[in-house]
Design goal:
This protein is of the alpha/beta class. It is 15% helix and 20% strand. It has two helices and four strands; from the N terminus they run αβαβββ. The protein has helices at 2-5, 22-33; strands at 10-13, 37-41, 60-65, 81-86. The termini are far apart.
Length: 106
C-alpha cells in the first residue's frame, strides 16, 4: 500500500508462500487499482502450483530459466506465468555468492 501511495510505477513482490490472506489480496488490488504494474515470482515448487503473490489476479507472474533458456527445474510453471528469464547461474556482486549454490555457474 505504501508503494502505491508513494506513486511507484512497478511493485516487485519477491516474497512467496503457499497461502494468501485477505489483507494481502486487498493490498494487491489496491495497488492494481492505482494503475501500477505488480510483478511476483511464481515460486520454486517445480510444479504448476504458483506461490502467492503470483497466484493473485492482477499480478504478472514470472518464472526462471536456466543458462540454456529452458525452464529451470525448480521453477513453478503454467499458464499463469507471463514472463520467464534467466534465474540460474547468474553472476552476482553479493560477497556471499560463493557460499550458495544458487549463484554457482554450473
Amino acid at each position: 500500500i505504501d508503494a502505491a501511495d508513494q506513486s511507484a510505477d512497478i511493485i516487485n513482490l519477491s516474497a512467496t508462500g503457499p497461502v494468501t490472506s485477505q489483507t494481502l489480496e486487498d493490498a494487491v488490488n489496491y495497488a492494481w487499482n492505482q494503475v501500477f504494474l505488480i510483478i511476483a515470482a511464481g515460486g520454486n515448487t517445480a510444479s504448476a502450483v504458483l506461490s502467492f503473490h503470483a497466484a493473485h489476479d492482477n499480478v504478472v507472474s514470472v518464472s526462471a530459466t536456466d543458462h540454456r533458456d529452458r525452464r529451470w527445474c525448480g521453477s513453478s510453471y503454467g499458464v499463469q506465468i507471463a514472463v520467464a528469464a534467466l534465474g540460474r547461474a547468474i553472476w552476482s556482486t553479493d560477497w556471499q555468492a560463493a557460499l550458495t549454490s544458487i549463484f554457482s555457474m554450473n
